[in-house]
Every structure is written in structure tokens, then in C-alpha cells.
Q: What sequence folds into this?
């Protein structure tokens, strides 16, 4: 396989094809008649998945650095480049994207009935943005793609969403925009603080920052990514966005968009700010937020009457495991976090698809409206149960491998956080099993539930690969772990190579800035959980003008 | 063949220092032994699951399609059953027979070869591997895992056969066998896995199957609830198990059993914090899975599942996994005397509490459920006093007689159910009569003589009457508890005396509540009413497994006749070899017994209040027999009211025991409701009012929302969408292109 790919010159064009292919598909969709739009979009996305699957063989994990690297000058004056590269971390994110997109598109065939051309064009535009985020090795290019994903998602929620779609779309947009503005400022700061002649990833790695600078920049990046993840207490946009979004929007949102946040943790936060991420206050804050997210979101999920909102909250809990795994700063924790990201993409994406199928049949998302579906739709129920079990991390499914490694890794350095996070396995059963019972089991008093149609052939085609992937990763995750291992090691080596004492200027200002941070980043007592967005902005001199500007425009 | 004589009675002198006992002395001439297709033993039930699962889905799709089409179709209504409902009859028990055959071959050859060192089959593949962690998909074959495999496949096969008759008229027949096969697969992974990682796969896997089978009749909310409760309570235990795994990994860098038990004494100091923490956390897992106090509350509810499921999962195999785990980790427990005292304490407390509850239950399965909890408590007591062989011994004999009791109860329920359904007129009382309520039974001996006889055997066995299986295993546990209390330097000696006394009392309670069950079910006047004429003996496919289990319940005790009884009448004057099981298991528990011998010293040769083993064996069997006879005499004369006419317990103590010590009510008030209230508070207050309140009340937010809303009101939304999307691209591009 590797030789065959090499004979195609695969390495030289694949990344560009994956970034721009969806855009070509988008043009095709817009040119096609509207009845054909969904088929065109599906074929393009399926083709891109087939192309991307070659990466599985073509990517050589030895060394763990960027592979398939290519760059071209974009804005020479500022040293901005169109630079792409792929390593063992982005490999899985890219393939997860190309894998989920055709499935989400196929899952929208019945759901999306109006403005179809626009919808499928936006779906493909979104794919370009997300793939670009995962492949860009130039910070400004990354930022452009990061922002680009915002736009199609905003419209997908805002146009094809449910009753409160405007509120949800705007909330999503503003939350994310606030975060990314701060990140842009941080990127610019690093650009000027560094050599100021390049936005390339390597130049940023080489930037010489003291602890105080690192902490502020960390805060800006962490806020942008933390909103995406989302980390408690920045999560309230997510349930609204999920509930209002059409099925394919929810699928992409859960499977891929949230991963941009945790991907940012791995790709930028850890390597760029090794001093900051080892700072005890920072680590403690992040771990506490992760743990609180796991438990809090599980509790809130358990009492949701709306099944879609319930699953949305479980996303927050799952991503909490990623946060805990990543900030434990161990190989097992990082790898576990990455596997949770993949597993969550597959299982939560599948749950949203299944809930979408339920909505298409019954036009309700309320848990109490269902019951007895297992009797009327055995294949549907089987797929649902397997997915739910993968979601709560039963051994033999993908969920277990990720959570187990993340918790094991966390336990190595942060046993207290790991113990608290492990209670999540109990609470996962507490939110998931009652939902499964009330949807699928119990008596079916409602005639519509007794006649609930089973999976159609199209729906079977959608679910089969997802279920297969959950079990494959659960039973034999080694090929995945092998491919991500060296890249994860690199991240960790980069962090461990720098110790706080070695580079920190020895003066009181460090202590003070740490003190400031303790105030800003300390886990918020419940009454006022939101000030993360505003405070750092005021401190960075350039910013006050920008934020109101954009918000008010 | 060198066998380590390391029973407590012949324990090494305390002077033999711990260090000299390590590394574990390898048997000097371990005969070479090759396992025969061990992977297939595990694989066969999985294949059975796949085949039966396929049939189940086909059948379910057909009947659901019929419902949608407005027709009624039942796979069991017609005279010719569809293939989906005939093939499982052969596939389900078939794969079990084959697995048992393979297991038996392996067991027999290993026995012949005096297997001393564990043999690792595989690794078939590497399950999880990172830079520091490696978990292989491999099987560990040794005395313990082979013995467990024999029980799981053997008793499992009999229960599968019984199920063919019991579940014949259930529309979900193929689904039932699919779940049952899947259960056996996970149970085999649990007992054969080569490390704590693979064990955990089986551990949660059997929990899943238990959940699916308890809630097998999922349209019934109560049954579905029971399944859910079992899963969640078990997950509390799994939380402890996971943390124990993390600690073991931290201590040893591996999760494989062999390096852990070999290196335990070198890694941890005797009585150290680390090893105590590991063992207590493992215990939390075991307490959940084996339904020990305070996590026992799920097991009685689990009786909602079909009765053969109760026999297989909730009596013979899965619930004993906790005992298996403690024995498997014996080298760790031996190093943690505090944990041992906790294990034994939880065990004996559970045995006592559950036995008292069994006193006042009227549902035949509930009595057996609490009896199971109680007997599992005895096994924990044994494991806690370092008598690992006795724990496994009781596990095996209990698997025989308790499976028999449950299947016998199944036959009774089958008959009662049939009678109620076919009764000419509604039975006495109001409407539906509960076919599981013993108050509606009585005098069934006349209608079901074989069932009566085999359940009688099982009752004598569990009551601990010579020469039935339970006599030997339970007697051994109680004896060890007493001997351990009197061991030379036992730091918790006094505590163990209390355990010993409580265990003695509980043994007598056992004889009482089992005799009560027999009396209420089979003796006295019949209370079934007019439906009684339809009562009948079970079909042969159900009777044969009962008889086989009855034979095992009689003979099972000879597996391990104590040395002290061996040459006496109680030990058949040496007709069977002494301590067969002990010798067989010696290599597995060797490391633990060495440690215990070094630290605790030689066990007492007499019980805490005097008397040798033989004397106490005599006393205990006579006392149990006396209780059984007295119970028959007293209760047999009593006339019971039917369930409908019974006013319930009249005394406070009666209500307390009937109410199961109000554990469920206490948990409802102190755990379930507070967590639910906290959940609602988090949602309604923190999420909605605090966080979103902050977000929504920022002025700019509302302004922008208004602006965006107005955009959408123009009706040209997709145009705007694209203008904006392109705009962002262009602006971003242009802004940087023009320096």
C-alpha cells in the first residue's frame, strides 16, 4: 500500500487536496441542480475520505514530527506562509473529519429539506475550514481556518436549526469570537516578541518568553480553545447549539469542532508555553476545571428532559477527561486524551445521528415521549445500545481505551484529580442508562412508538461503520496508539525539556504575576463563573478597543 | 511432585523470615503441560453469541414488521416454530458443551501433569500498548483459572440445557441465548485473563450481560429498573477496581498477575499503606460484584431476570467473581492484615445480615437471593482469614447446590405459572396470583416429587449436613476462622473470635431459613387454590440438569476432605484423597500462605473455646440437623395464609427483617435523592441562572442578537450566508495581502 501511494506521488498533493477538495465540491454543489445537491456533496466528501484514508499507511510515525510538509509564501512582507504538515496528532483529527463529514451528509438526506444547495455547500466549506485547522503549520493560516469554521457553523445552526436557532447561533458565534480574538492578539504578541519575520510554527516554538509572558499568552490561548472544547464554565453555548442545530450540524459539532479546542491544547498550548503548563497553579486550575466538567456535566445531563441536550452535556463530561489526561502531562494521559477525542467523535456523533433518526420519525426529542423502541426497532435499538455503551466507556469499546489511559496517566502525576475524575465512570452510568431505558425499554404505550420504523438501508449504512469503529478501537487500539505515540512523546519532551526555574527571571515579578494568575484563573466559585472572557483583555494594552468594536458591529 | 505443605495447620515456623520465602519457591519437578486449544474455550461462547444474536435480530425484525403492518405474529404461537426459535436450542447449549469438553480435557491433563506453574496462552494480540503500559490479550491457565473454567462451563452448560425447557415459550428465545452465551464469554475472559486489565474487561462485560438479562423482559419498568440498578451499583465497585489497577500499575509497572504476585512481598512492606490501599480498593470492586454489604442491594432486585439467569449469573458464577479476585490477589491481601480483617468482617457481616433477611421473605427467589448473598459472605470470610482454598471450595460447592436450588425454584415457578395461567377460575384472593410467592404454594411435593427430592438434597447441602457438599466447605471456613483467631501473633485476634461466633450463628440461621423454604413450598397443605390441579412436574430437559446438579451437591464435598476428618467416619475412612483441592490450588496461593505463615504464625489447632476440628465438625453437623428437624416440626404444623390473605409481619423486628433492614430506603434518602437534587440545582441554578444569566445580560449580546435577527427577516438568508462566508475569506485574505 505504501509503495502504491508513493507511486502516485501521494505525499506531495494529499494535504492540499484535503484542504481545497471540499471547496471544489462546494462549487460543484452550487452549480448542480438542487435535487442533486446532496448526492454531489456526499460523493465529494466520500471521495475525500477515500483519499485521506491513504494517510493511514502513508504516514510514518517514526520521529513523530511533521510529515508531508509543504509551504509557499503567502504574504512575504510579514513572513506569512501557506504551510501544511501532518503528524500523529493531526492524522487522526483529519481522518476523523473526512470520515465524519460524509456520514453527517448522508444523515441529513431526510432532515434537510429546504435551501439544500446552501446547506451542502456550507457543509463542505466547513470541512475545508476544519481540515485546514488541523493541517496548518503557520499560525496566521491556522487562525484564518479557525475563524472560517465559525461562519458555516453559524449559518447551519441559524438557518436549519430549531425554534431558538437565532439565540443559539449568536451565542455560539459570540462565545467563540471572543475567544479567538484573544488568541489573535496572543498570536500577534508572539509574532512581535519572537523574530517578527515569520508566523511559522517553528518560529513560534523558538520564541523567547519569560514565565510572566507565557502565563498571559497561555491564558489567551487557553480561553480560545477552552471555549471550543468546551471547558466548564465556558460550556453553556454548547447545549443550546446542539439542541438547535440540525442533525448533521450536531454531528460535525460534536465529532470535529470540539476537537479543535483540545487539538489546540496539544498542538499549541503545551509546546508553546512549557513553563506555564508546568506551573502548579495553572495545572491545578486546568485539572480542577476538567474534573468539575466531568462530574458537573454528568449531573446536569442526568436531569435533562431533552435527549439531545442530555447528549450535549455528556460531551462536556467527555471532554473533561481529555483535559484531565492532557494536563497530567504524562504519555499515557496525552495518548488517552487523544483516544477519547477520537472515541467521543465517533460515539457522540453516532448518538446525535440516532437521536436525529428518532426526531425524523416522531418529531420530538423529549425522552418521555419514547419507550419500548427496542421492541419495534431492534436494529435501531442494538445500534443505540452499543453506541451508548461506547459512550460510557465499557471495556471492549473505544470509550474505555481512551478514558482508561487518560485516567491512568493522570493518576501517575495527579492522583487526587484522577480519583475525582474516575467517579465519572459511575456518573456516566447514572446519566446514560436511564435515558437508554426510557427511550428503548419500558412499555410502549404510544402507538407511534409501537410502529417506530427500524433502520432503513441508508441509516444502516450510516451506523455500520461507526459501530465497527467503536469496537475496533475498543478491541485493537494498538495501530492507533502506535501512530500517535511518537508525536505525543514529542509534545511531552518539549514540555519536559523546559523547567520553570531554569528560564524564569529570578525576581518578585514572577511571584506577583503568578499571584495575579491565581486570581484570574482560579476555579470560579459558582456565583460568578464567567469572568475568564473579560479580564485578561484589559491587561493587554492593545485590546480594549477591539472587543466592543466587533461585538457592537 | 513436590507440593508445598502450607496449610495453616502445618504452616512454616514464624522464624522463617519473609525474605527467605521469596522468590516463591518453584516446584522442583514441574511436569511440562501444554494447554489444548485454550483460546477456543473462550471463543466458542462468543461465536454462539454472534449466531444467536443474528437469529434474535431476524426474529425481532420480523415481529416488529408484523406489528407495523397491523398484524399479530408470534414466533411461538404456531405449531411449527420458525428456525430462529429452533436453532438456538442447539447453538446455545452446543457451544457450551464444546467449551466444557475442551475445558475438561485441559483440566484433566493439567491435573495429571500436577500443573504447578501458570501457563500463558497467547498473547493473541497486544490490546493496549503505550510507552510504559502493555496489556496483552492473553490467557493464564493455572489451578485456579482452570477450576473456575470447569465451574463456569460445566454449570453453565447444565443451565443452558435447563433454559431450553424453561424459556421455550418466550418470544425472545434466541435473544435470551445470545445474552447467555455472551455472559459465558465474558465470564471466561474474567477468570482466564492473564492480568488485571483483561480481568476488568470480563468484569464489566459480565456486568453488562447481567444488566441485559435482569432487564430481559424490558417492557416491564420494574425489571428494567432492576437491571439499571445492578449496573450502577456495580460501577461504584468498578470505580474502586479501576483505582486499584492504577495503583498496581504504579507499583509494578505492569498489570499481569504473575509479576504482581511474585513481586508483591518484595515491593511492599508488610502492612504498608500502599498494599493496604490497593487491597481495599480491589475489595470495593469485589463488594460491588459479589453483592456484599453495603453494596448488596442490587442482587435481590436482580431476581427480576429469568430464573436460570439467577442460577447462572446471580448464584453460581458472576457473583463469585469477587471471591475469585481476592484469591487471585492473595499475595497482596496476605501483606495487608487490615484489609484481611475488613474482608472477613464484611463477609461475616454480610452473611449474618442476609441470613436474617432471608428469614422473613416470602418470594422463593428472594429467599434464595439473600441466601446467595449470605453464602458469598462466608466465602469472603474464608478469603479474609487467609483460607483461600476454603473460599474456592465453598465457591465450587455453592455453585452446585445454589444453581440446583435456583433451577429447582425455576421448576416450581414454571409449574406455578402454568397452573395460574391454565387455572379454570381466578385463584383465591384478588386477581393475579404471584407464582413466586411461597405463601401461595405448599404441598408441592405431591405434584413435583423429583424437584422436591433434588431441592431437599440442596437444602441439606447448604445447611451443612454431612455428607453433603456444603458440610465440608462451610465447616472448613468456620474452622479456619476460629483457628485464625487463635493464631500466634494475629493482631486482630479478638476481632476474629467475634467473626467466628457470628459465623457459627449464621450457619444455624442458614439451616433454619432453608428448612422454612422447603416447608412453605413443598410441605403442609396446598394453598394454590383451584389451579393446583394444573401443577405438574417439569419436563425432562429441565429435570436432567437438576439431577446432575444434585449428584454434584452430594459428591462435591469429597473434593477437599480435611486431613483431620480423613480417616474418620465423616471422611469415609480415607476412601477419597484428603485435601485434593488444597493440593491442587497450592501453587496459586503458595506465595500468600508463605507470607501469612511468616507474619501471623502458626494457626491454632483448637477453636477459640476449645475442641479440635473433628469435634467441631460433629457439633456443627448435628446442630444443623437439629435445626432442620426442629424447623420442620414447628413450621410444618403451622398453617400459612395465602399471599392475598396474609397481613404481613406483626412485630417490629419482623417488619425490619421483611423490609430488608431498610437499606434501599436509606440509600434513597441519603444518596439517590440528594444527587438528583444536586443535579437539578446545577442545571437550574448554576447553568441557567448564573452562567447563562451572565452571558445573556451583557448588553452588546442582546444588541447583536437583534441585529442578526433582523438579517434573517429579509428572507434572503442563503444569500447572506454566502456573502458573509465569502466576505470573511476575502477580508482576511485582503487584510493581510495589502501590507
A:
Amino acid at each position: 500500500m505504501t509503495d502504491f501511494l508513493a507511486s502516485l506521488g501521494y505525499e506531495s498533493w494529499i494535504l492540499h487536496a484535503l484542504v481545497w477538495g471540499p471547496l471544489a465540491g462546494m462549487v460543484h454543489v452550487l452549480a448542480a441542480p438542487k435535487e442533486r445537491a446532496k448526492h454531489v456533496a456526499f460523493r465529494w466528501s466520500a471521495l475525500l475520505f477515500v483519499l485521506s484514508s491513504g494517510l493511514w499507511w502513508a504516514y510514518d510515525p517514526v520521529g513523530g514530527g511533521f510529515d508531508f510538509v509543504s509551504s509557499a509564501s503567502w504574504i512575504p512582507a510579514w513572513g506569512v506562509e501557506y504551510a501544511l504538515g501532518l503528524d500523529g496528532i493531526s492524522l487522526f483529527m483529519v481522518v476523523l473529519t473526512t470520515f465524519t463529514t460524509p456520514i453527517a451528509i448522508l444523515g441529513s438526506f431526510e432532515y434537510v429539506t429546504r435551501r439544500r444547495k446552501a446547506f451542502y455547500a456550507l457543509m463542505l466549506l466547513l470541512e475545508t475550514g476544519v481540515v485546514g485547522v488541523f493541517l496548518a503549520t503557520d499560525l496566521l493560516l491556522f487562525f484564518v481556518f479557525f475563524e472560517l469554521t465559525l461562519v458555516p457553523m453559524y449559518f447551519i445552526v441559524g438557518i436549519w436549526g430549531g425554534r431558538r436557532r437565532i439565540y443559539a447561533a449568536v451565542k455560539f458565534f459570540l462565545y467563540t469570537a471572543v475567544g479567538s480574538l484573544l488568541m489573535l492578539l496572543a498570536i500577534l504578541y508572539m509574532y512581535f516578541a519572537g523574530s517578527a519575520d515569520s508566523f511559522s510554527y517553528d518560529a513560534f516554538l523558538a520564541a523567547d518568553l519569560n514565565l510572566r509572558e507565557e502565563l498571559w499568552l497561555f491564558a489567551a490561548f487557553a480561553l480560545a480553545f477552552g471555549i471550543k472544547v468546551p471547558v466548564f464554565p465556558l460550556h453553556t453555548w454548547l447545549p443550546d447549539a446542539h439542541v438547535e442545530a440540525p442533525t448533521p450540524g450536531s454531528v460535525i459539532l460534536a465529532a470535529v469542532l470540539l476537537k479543535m479546542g483540545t487539538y489546540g491544547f496539544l498542538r499549541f498550548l503545551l509546546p508553546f508555553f512549557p513553563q506555564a503548563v508546568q506551573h502548579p497553579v495553572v495545572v491545578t486550575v486546568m485539572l480542577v476545571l476538567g474534573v468539575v466538567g466531568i462530574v458537573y456535566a454528568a449531573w446536569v445531563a442526568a436531569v435533562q428532559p431533552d435527549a439531545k441536550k442530555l447528549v450535549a452535556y455528556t460531551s462536556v463530561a467527555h471532554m473533561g477527561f481529555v483535559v484531565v489526561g492532557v494536563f497530567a502531562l504524562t504519555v499515557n494521559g496525552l495518548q488517552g486524551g487523544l483516544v477519547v477525542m477520537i472515541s467521543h467523535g465517533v460515539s457522540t456523533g453516532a448518538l446525535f445521528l440516532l437521536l436525529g433518526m428518532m426526531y425524523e420519525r416522531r418529531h420530538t426529542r423529549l425522552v418521555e415521549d419514547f419507550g419500548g423502541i427496542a421492541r419495534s426497532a431492534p436494529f435501531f435499538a442494538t445500534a443505540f445500545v452499543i453506541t451508548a455503551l461506547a459512550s460510557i466507556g465499557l471495556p471492549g469499546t473505544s470509550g474505555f481505551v481512551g478514558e482508561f489511559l487518560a485516567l491512568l496517566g493522570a493518576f501517575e502525576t495527579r492522583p487526587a484529580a484522577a480519583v475525582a475524575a474516575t467517579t465519572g465512570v459511575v456518573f456516566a452510568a447514572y446519566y446514560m442508562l436511564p435515558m437508554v431505558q426510557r427511550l428503548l425499554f419500558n412499555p410502549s404505550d404510544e402507538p407511534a412508538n409501537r410502529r417506530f420504523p427500524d433502520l432503513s438501508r441508508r441509516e444502516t449504512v450510516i451506523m455500520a461503520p461507526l459501530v465497527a469503529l467503536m469496537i475496533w478501537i475498543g478491541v485493537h487500539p494498538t495501530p492507533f496508539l502506535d501512530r500517535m505515540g511518537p508525536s505525543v512523546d514529542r509534545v511531552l519532551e518539549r514540555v519536559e525539556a523546559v523547567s520553570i526555574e531554569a528560564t524564569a527571571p529570578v525576581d518578585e515579578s514572577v511571584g506577583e504575576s503568578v499571584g495575579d494568575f491565581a486570581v484570574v484563573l482560579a476555579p470560579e466559585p459558582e456565583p460568578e463563573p464567567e469572568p475568564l472572557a473579560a479580564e485578561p483583555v484589559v491587561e493587554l494594552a492593545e485590546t480594549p478597543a477591539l472587543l466592543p468594536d466587533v461585538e457592537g458591529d | 511432585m513436590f507440593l508445598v505443605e502450607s496449610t495453616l495447620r502445618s504452616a512454616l515456623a514464624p522464624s522463617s523470615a519473609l525474605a527467605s520465602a521469596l522468590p516463591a519457591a518453584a516446584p522442583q519437578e514441574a511436569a511440562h503441560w501444554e494447554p489444548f486449544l485454550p483460546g477456543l474455550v473462550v471463543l466458542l461462547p462468543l461465536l454462539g453469541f454472534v449466531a444467536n444474536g443474528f437469529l434474535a435480530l431476524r426474529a425481532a425484525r420480523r415481529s416488529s414488521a408484523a406489528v407495523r403492518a397491523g398484524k399479530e405474529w408470534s414466533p411461538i404461537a404456531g405449531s411449527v416454530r420458525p428456525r430462529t426459535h429452533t436453532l438456538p436450542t442447539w447453538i446455545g447449549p452446543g457451544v457450551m458443551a464444546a467449551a466444557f469438553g475442551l475445558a475438561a480435557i485441559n483440566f484433566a491433563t493439567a491435573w495429571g501433569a500436577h500443573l504447578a506453574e501458570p501457563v500463558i496462552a497467547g498473547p493473541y494480540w497486544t490490546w493496549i500498548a503505550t510507552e510504559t503500559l502493555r496489556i496483552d490479550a492473553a490467557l493464564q491457565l493455572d489451578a485456579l483459572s482452570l477450576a473456575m473454567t470447569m465451574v463456569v462451563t460445566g454449570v453453565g452448560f447444565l443451565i443452558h440445557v435447563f433454559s431450553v425447557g424453561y424459556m421455550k415459550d418466550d418470544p425472545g428465545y434466541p435473544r435470551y441465548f445470545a445474552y447467555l452465551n455472551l455472559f459465558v464469554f465474558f465470564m471466561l475472559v474474567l477468570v482466564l485473563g492473564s492480568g488485571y486489565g483483561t480481568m476488568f474487561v470480563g468484569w464489566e462485560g459480565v456486568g453488562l450481560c447481567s444488566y441485559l438479562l435482569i432487564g430481559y423482559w424490558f417492557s416491564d419498568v420494574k425489571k428494567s429498573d432492576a437491571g439499571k440498578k445492578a449496573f450502577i451499583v456495580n460501577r461504584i465497585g468498578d470505580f474502586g477496581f479501576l483505582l486499584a489497577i492504577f495503583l498496581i500499575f504504579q507499583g509494578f509497572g505492569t498489570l499481569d498477575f504473575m509479576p504482581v504476585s511474585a513481586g508483591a512481598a518484595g515491593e511492599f512492606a508488610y502492612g504498608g499503606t500502599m498494599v493496604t490501599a490497593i487491597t481495599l480498593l480491589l475489595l470495593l470492586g469485589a463488594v460491588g460484584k459479589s453483592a456484599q454489604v453495603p453494596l448488596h442491594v442490587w442482587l435481590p432486585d436482580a431476581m427480576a431476570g429469568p430464573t436460570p439467569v439467577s442460577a447462572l449469573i446471580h448464584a453460581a458464577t458472576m457473583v463469585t467473581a469477587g471471591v475469585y479476585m481476592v484469591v487471585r490477589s492473595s499475595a497482596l491481601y496476605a501483606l495487608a492484615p487490615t484489609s484481611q480483617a475488613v474482608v472477613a468482617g464484611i463477609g461475616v457481616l454480610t452473611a449474618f445480615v442476609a441470613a436474617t433477611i432471608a428469614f422473613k421473605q416470602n418470594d422463593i427467589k428472594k429467599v434464595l437471593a439473600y441466601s446467595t448473598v449470605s453464602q458469598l459472605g462466608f466465602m469472603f470470610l474464608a478469603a479474609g482469614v487467609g483460607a483461600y482454598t476454603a473460599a474456592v471450595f465453598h465457591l465450587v460447592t455453592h455453585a452446585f447446590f445454589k444453581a440446583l436450588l435456583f433451577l429447582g425454584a425455576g421448576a416450581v415457578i414454571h409449574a406455578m405459572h402454568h397452573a395460574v395461567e391454565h387455572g379454570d377460575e381466578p385463584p383465591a384472593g384478588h386477581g393475579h396470583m404471584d407464582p413466586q410467592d411461597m405463601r401461595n404454594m405448599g404441598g408441592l411435593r405431591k405434584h413435583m416429587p423429583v424437584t422436591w427430592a433434588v431441592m431437599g438434597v440442596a437444602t441439606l447441602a447448604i445447611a451443612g449436613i454431612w455428607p453433603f457438599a456444603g458440610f465440608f466447605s462451610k465447616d472448613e471456613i468456620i474452622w479456619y476462622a476460629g483457628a485464625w483467631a487463635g493464631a500466634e501473633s494475629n493482631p486482630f485476634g479478638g476481632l476474629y473470635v467475634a467473626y467466628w461466633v457470628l459465623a457459627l450463628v449464621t450457619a444455624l440461621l442458614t439451616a433454619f431459613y432453608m428448612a422454612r423454604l422447603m416447608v412453605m413450598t413443598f410441605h403442609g397443605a396446598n394453598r394454590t387454590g383451584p389451579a393446583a390441579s394444573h401443577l405438574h412436574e417439569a419436563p425432562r430437559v429441565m429435570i436432567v440438569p437438576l439431577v446432575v446438579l444434585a449428584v454434584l451437591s452430594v459428591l462435591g464435598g469429597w473434593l477437599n476432605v480435611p486431613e483431620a476428618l480423613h480417616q474418620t467416619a465423616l471422611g469415609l475412612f480415607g476412601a477419597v484423597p484428603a485435601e485434593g483441592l488444597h493440593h491442587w490450588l497450592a501453587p496459586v496461593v503458595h506465595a500468600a500462605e508463605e507470607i501469612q505463615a511468616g507474619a501471623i504464625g502458626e494457626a491454632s489447632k483448637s477453636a477459640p473455646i476449645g475442641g479440635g476440628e473433628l469435634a467441631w465438625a460433629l457439633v456443627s453437623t448435628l446442630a444443623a440437623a437439629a435445626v432442620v428437624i426442629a424447623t420442620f416440626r414447628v413450621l410444618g404444623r403451622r398453617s400459612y395464609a395465602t399471599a392475598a390473605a396474609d397481613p404481613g409481619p406483626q412485630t417490629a423486628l419482623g417488619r425490619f427483617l421483611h423490609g430488608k433492614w431498610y437499606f434501599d430506603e436509606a440509600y434513597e434518602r441519603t444518596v439517590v435523592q440528594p444527587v438528583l437534587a444536586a443535579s437539578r440545582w446545577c442545571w437550574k441554578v448554576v447553568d441557567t441562572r448564573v452562567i447563562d444569566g451572565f452571558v445573556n445580560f451583557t448588553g452588546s449580546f442582546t444588541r447583536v442578537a437583534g441585529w442578526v435577527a433582523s438579517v434573517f427577516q429579509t428572507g434572503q438568508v442563503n444569500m447572506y450566508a454566502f456573502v458573509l462566508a465569502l466576505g470573511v475569506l476575502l477580508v482576511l485574505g485582503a487584510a493581510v495581502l495589502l501590507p
Notes: The CA atoms of residues 230 and 450 of chain A lie 38 Å apart. Chain A touches chain B through 98 residues (CB under 8 Å). The beta strands of chain A are 67-75, 80-86.
